[in-house]
Fold these 3 entries.
Entry 1:
Amino acid sequence: MRLAGGTSYPGTELRVIDILLADDQELVRTALVALLELEDDFHVVATVGRGDEVVSAVERTQPMVVLLDIEMPGLDGISAAIEVHRHYPNCRIIMLTTFGRPGYLRRAMESGASGFVVKDAPAATLAATIRSVAEGRTVVDPVLAGEALSIGQSPLSPRESEVLGAFRHGAPVAEVAAHLHLSEGTVRNYLSSAITKTGTKNRASALLRAEELGWLSSP
Amino acid sequence: MRLAGGTSYPGTELRVIDILLADDQELVRTALVALLELEDDFHVVATVGRGDEVVSAVERTQPMVVLLDIEMPGLDGISAAIEVHRHYPNCRIIMLTTFGRPGYLRRAMESGASGFVVKDAPAATLAATIRSVAEGRTVVDPVLAGEALSIGQSPLSPRESEVLGAFRHGAPVAEVAAHLHLSEGTVRNYLSSAITKTGTKNRASALLRAEELGWLSSP
DNA sequence: CCTCGCGCATGACACTTGTCATCATGAATT
DNA sequence: AATTCATGATGACAAGTGTCATGCGCGAGG
């Protein structure tokens, strides 16, 4: 069965695409395998539930395409993509994630990914993306791509996004300052400029906005 | 094929369980359908992507079991469960969610659900839960049930959790006070006691803790 | 070379938050 | 009838937070 994309004529032999799937939720992972295996030109050769298991699984199974969720324990999807791309540059990577954060998209593509699909997309989109990417093309959800271009990249300096991100657990300034080996004043200055640049009025909303745009560095 | 649970002998006729699936992410929804349809005693009669479409879909298709994600646009899963349970008390409900918030579990069961499965669980667990629930039993992940019992219910008064929840978007006190038609002082008092009861030091961490335990009222 | 941006720091100031004491009301218990 | 308790309010005070001016050193680019 084919959900979308590609062409196959009677008598044409099928080129099976070997896929590795990385997603932290077991049920979703298994379900996606069931979905992908409905296509007769897809074959899932391995699945992993942690980012830090991706590279060794790629080594073992040599898949053609790797589907990577961004939110994963151990190692996030972007970092995993960088690792895979460094060791196996011929291996195609598709990011598959819940949120279409424009900043994520940019970093994903810079990390060596060839495709970006949100979990809100229909199954046909995923199938079509896998086939296109396997053939060497680069595929990004057009809506997302437009958003990413219109919003542009993060206005936050690396340090600003690092400091802002350090407040994700609601710690007070003093703790964050100690943790980053900075003075409290410095932390408040970075915070202040991050608040200004995000167009918000306090750290909490700055954090929310930065997060929804994918402007925060490493989790 | 059967992943787990139940018994079937050669010659025994199969009782097919009609299922309605509600999940906001199209890809996950489709994938879960593919997974469930692998079982020859499951049949997915309808899927919806919004909480406020659940009841009418139940009316139309009269499923035996409803699988409800908690996070959904339109109407959250718990409220949807209450509606379904009121109109169709014979229809069995299973909550299927990303997080095992103990508070969610409690409210889910009070809302008339018969089962609670986290998306981290293996597919066999879901299948077994569906079969058990269809036969009239009540099934809750034992780990989760233990947690819920050990933590107990929310110590926050309804008003406290409402006020605390109003800070989810990072608004300052003045705005929240205006929005809730309260004086600023009152808001700060509720906030203060919520902070105390969650054992935290500021509203941000109070919010995080309350959220992770499922202590906040309506989204 | 010299400016510009970034990283880092200090100190001062105004404003926001968190805590506490106190008080009033109405509903539910005892 | 007395007590408890959630709701709602005020005022005062201490901490925490956000802004700004100012300073220094460094590296990249005009």
Entry 2:
Amino acid sequence: MIQNALNEINRGCAEIIDNERIEKLLKAYYEEGKTYTVKAGFDPTAPDLHLGHTVLLQKLAAFQKYGGRVQFLIGSFTAMIGDPTGKSATRKVLTQEDIVKNIASYTTQAFKILDESKTDIVYNNEWLDDLGAGGMLQLASNLTVARMLERDDFSKRYASQTPIAVSEFMYPLLQGYDSVHLQSDIEIGGTDQKFNLLMGRQLQKAYNLKKQQAVLMMPILEGLDGVQKMSKSLGNYIGVTDAPNDMFGKVLSISDTLMWRYYELLSTKTLEEIAQMKTAVEDGSLHPKKVKEDLALEITARFHSETQANTAKEEFDKVHAKSQIPTDIEEFSCEGAIWIAKALQECNIEPSTSQARRDIKQGGVKINQEKVTDEKLQLTQGEYLLQVGKRKFAKLKVN
RNA sequence: GGUGAGGUAGUCAAGUGGCCAACGACGGCGGACUGUAAAUCCGCUCCCUACGGGUUCAUAGGUUCGACUCCUAUCCUCACCA
């Protein structure tokens, strides 16, 4: 039993510090029914979660299955500083209203994965506000500037003379202090958080807590391109709130190699099942397309519903595999005859008439499934199905 | 504060008086192919009812028949020195 739980908890992890502690906690749960706390911090700087965040959430959910109580920590205080991790410039500071708004949409999204009854949402301003200047100084005395500058992102910024606000130095300390206050047993975060996570251990010791938290680090999920980390600013993300069709399509667009990584970090399938699929694909008995479809279905169903996921699949097959027309097409209408290039522009499927002409010349424009060859074509009264390329559609009614 | 270099299309980056709507790369778009929105190959890539016209190379003026290219001023960026 314990071994099972351990396996599931270890799955996909990049690094675990103090695995023994985790084992002991699990043992105490199975033998004495004692629960323990697992802390994860979330920075309410953006309102939307993407699959990269859900890697952590799913790990938290795994802990919940085995006696863990999640401390879902909202960095309501620290958001005002901005985490310097991986950043090359001082971050913009958020206003209180922004933070409140972000938190609300954040938690609803998170509870699609987490068990709400085993989760405590905590806000770090509740105790950090009261820390006071004295407490702050005491806290800061636990760390030397030299150690702080050892951090890659800080030293790079320092070397390149990019400004570092002193307040940013406080960030890891405050995050670590959260662990002191909450007396967390385990903290999890991304590998890029290593410094901050270890600070929790160091501070717990400094503040004479009996046990130091174990630290579990998850790898950073690659984005759709398979190279850079998934992030909104890079545009290579799958958002938790993405429409079913988009979500399904985005998963299918990843490469076959990346697909296995997503399986490991995002799927609820067991590692054995995944290994079996992998062998089957390698010896040719299973088609990789099928495997990827299953993944897309699983992920889409998690955030929407099984029915919606299946609809999305059908829709995808229809449009891409069989090059048929999608179900929902935006409709436009206009008065009087209209020039084809102008019509495409009006329907927002071409940015300019020049681009429209080019695409017509190249045979990329279709009306009612028929290729358009005449770039001077006038559309007279009637209804038309306009198409540019394989996936831009519009319906136009000419009155 | 001083000195030097530079600002060119979505990005990077050529072009140093007419051959420039401006080489090239990436990206993007279209086509072929494919299980795929991957890879590969081909084409396109400022706007305009368009074999022609219009507006571009930080901004504003100027020189010239003609300027992205020369001059002047302004704004911004970067490097070195202090």
Entry 3:
Amino acid sequence: MVTLLDVAASAGVSRSTVSLVINKSPLVKDETRQRVERAIQELGYVPNPNARGLVKKENKSLGVIIAIEDQPYNTYEFNYETGLYSYNITNGIPVGLANTDYGLLTERFCVSIQGKELPALVKNNRVDGIFLVGGLFTPELIERLKEKKIPIIAIGRYYDQIDSVSTDVTQGVYLGVRYLLDQGYRKICYINCPQIYRSNAERVAGVQKAMREFHLEMKPDWLVYCKHNTGEGGYEAIKRLWQSGARPQAIAAANEPIALGIMRFLYEQDIRIPEDIAIVSYEDSVLGGYAVPALTSVNIQKEYMGELAARIMLKRIRKGQEGELEHIIVEPNLVVRSSVGKC
Amino acid sequence: MVTLLDVAASAGVSRSTVSLVINKSPLVKDETRQRVERAIQELGYVPNPNARGLVKKENKSLGVIIAIEDQPYNTYEFNYETGLYSYNITNGIPVGLANTDYGLLTERFCVSIQGKELPALVKNNRVDGIFLVGGLFTPELIERLKEKKIPIIAIGRYYDQIDSVSTDVTQGVYLGVRYLLDQGYRKICYINCPQIYRSNAERVAGVQKAMREFHLEMKPDWLVYCKHNTGEGGYEAIKRLWQSGARPQAIAAANEPIALGIMRFLYEQDIRIPEDIAIVSYEDSVLGGYAVPALTSVNIQKEYMGELAARIMLKRIRKGQEGELEHIIVEPNLVVRSSVGKC
DNA sequence: CTGAAAGCGCTTACAG
DNA sequence: CTGAAAGCGCTTACAG
């Protein structure tokens, strides 16, 4: 393995000089720098990350902590959550990290089971900062995380204790329902996430805001909650509604898994989308783009949230933990595909 | 920050002894060990990974190199690849790494653009070994990778130069087509991947094996290739076939994106699945489980391939690079859902 | 079974 | 602008 010393010898300078060159210090004479750079090239020298990390007290790695409900169970089935939400968010992070040499380490963390411990990545001091994805983190856990004194950025959900990048849920839901109304639909039902989610109130507010603009009231029975954030959850919810005799012209779903559950039920009843009934979804994912028919959905910009979070992280690392918390709200936007017609 | 020295002082031993305890050496007297362990507990000591890595010459990180066609472009649309293949494989790796303290770093690498360089993770010596996912790696690139002298395991595709975990494509495709035949379908068409894929021959072999068992011949016109591995690719392929007048009883698709493209075309024609036409897919993903109707598909066990690859990696790190290459073939299995009936 | 000492490959004041 | 020296926090022979 070629080290600093080899480069120094080859270039005829001291180790400090080589180090200064590597770290782009302006203190080195141009001619010396070039000589050193040539030696680095020739020898194929690469700085040892551990040696550097040891003295600079940094890992050049960031952690993504994904909150999960229980043990990760790999399945593609309709009655399981898809994991696409955290996957898409995580995909955006490297975009914001481009042109840095930060690596990204991922860990799934079950708050309910491992709640008393810390994620291994932070416990073992493997990372210089962490991203929290998912809404399952408790305030207590976040407090314990903060004791490690590394930057923490929440993605997808607002937490008042730390920096966050989240989405305007009310506005997003509003956009979807509003689009249905704009297209002439009036008899609209909303299939919401399971009751336990705190963001449900924001969703309902979005529905109501749109309805009121059209001087309509949401029928209380037409606001239903799924048991799970899965296809089956949506399927069962629409089935119950249908069996109660409800015949909406359009359905707004809280996310794609739920929307696809609804679509499956309708398919079984031989009800055509969008000819017989319209459906609009929220969140957006490959499930929406690939759905049959393609789902009109509100895109909450998951990748972009990840990217922005990465930028905040870099800033925190550079400037330190002091200063105002940042709470960025990303605007959702409607993606019109083929599941809504004209009423 | 608490260091080895603090623990040593607190426990009244030397640093070497603490180090031996941490590394579970049997050389330490039981009573001493307990004293040291108590001190570690009390002080909340965590070994510094960089210091340890520096002397042991290891990173305790592994890299996943995902081959991509061109720049990653984030979209959920029907005319883009989904990325689910590499995502699912990558998800399996941590399972095989459980109870070790290896972290997993991911890098997307565009062979055609960055072909002359090495992935940053390996160039900068950030990882102790790498997993190659995707079939786009060239033999030359692999040779250059091997010069780094770290273990390399290919997942999903066989390469003769390195360890690999892959799938029996012919058997998988056979399973799917065979199932159609078993259910009574005879007029079957096969929608294959784009021509450039080397695995296409294996797929065709699978189709033919099944057909011959039933004393049938594949009509050459009914074996068609998509332009892209996307929904649109499948959509356009089936459209061409349909417009040529072909009316198959059943369709076998080379993967879910293609299958969903086919399903979209059929939906537009108001052709019901499975009542009017059956469809079987291959690979399996959340796109299949959530499809409307749910897709019967051949599961190639992507997560399990990742898990096995991780185990091989651990073995290679322990035992070194010597010894026979391992080439594991994972058996595919049919997942019966709702897209195939009885003919 | 335990301790003193050298060394892993860097960076960073400090002189000059 | 450059070099000698100390130090980051560990592990590992080597004595004893």
